[in-house]
Amino acid sequence: MHKKLWLILIVTNWTVFFVVSGLIYYVGHYLPHGISYPTGENSCDYSSRGPCREIYKEDLRGINIPNWAKFFRESEVELLWIALLFIGIITSDKIKKN
């Protein structure tokens, strides 16, 4: 039963990972984009030694896309994507060892 639970966890995690990946791609490539505006902040590469540039953010108020798509655009969904990838790798390795 314990191994079956791990398999369910692994399959669920990889399914959610690929669904989130597909949604990130779909929202980024096929839905309309809003205009970008400068935030007034700067981002520098290589710990402030590299070239600096102004940070721009997308204005989502004027575009007609669903709220879930706005969530994928304005939040840090990439962190969720990386976490799911990490959990998937760790759990897959755990089941291989058992």
Q: What about the largest sheet?
A: 2 strands, antiparallel
Q: What is the count of distinct domains?
A: 1
The amount of beta strand, in percent, is 15-25%
First and last CA, distance? 13 Å
How much helix, percentage-wise, in residues?
Answer: 55-70%
Total DSSP helices? 3
Structural class: alpha+beta
Poorly predicted runs of 5 or more residues: none
SSE arrangement, N to C: HEEHH
Shape: flat
Number of E strands: 2
SSE layout and pairings?
Layout: H1 2-29, E1 36-44, E2 52-58, H2 67-74, H3 77-97
Antiparallel strand pairs: 1-2
Compact description:
With 98 residues, the chain is an alpha+beta fold. It contains 3 helices and 2 strands, in the order H-E-E-H-H.
How would you characterize this protein structure?
By secondary structure, the chain is α+β, with helices and mostly antiparallel strands. The protein has one domain. The chain is built from three helices and two strands, in the order αββαα. Strands 1-2 form a two-stranded antiparallel sheet. A hairpin with a 7-residue loop joins strand 1 and strand 2. The longest helix has 28 residues. The chain is flat. The two termini are 13 Å apart. The relative contact order is 0.19.
List key phrases describing it:
98 residues, alpha+beta, 3 helices, 58% helix
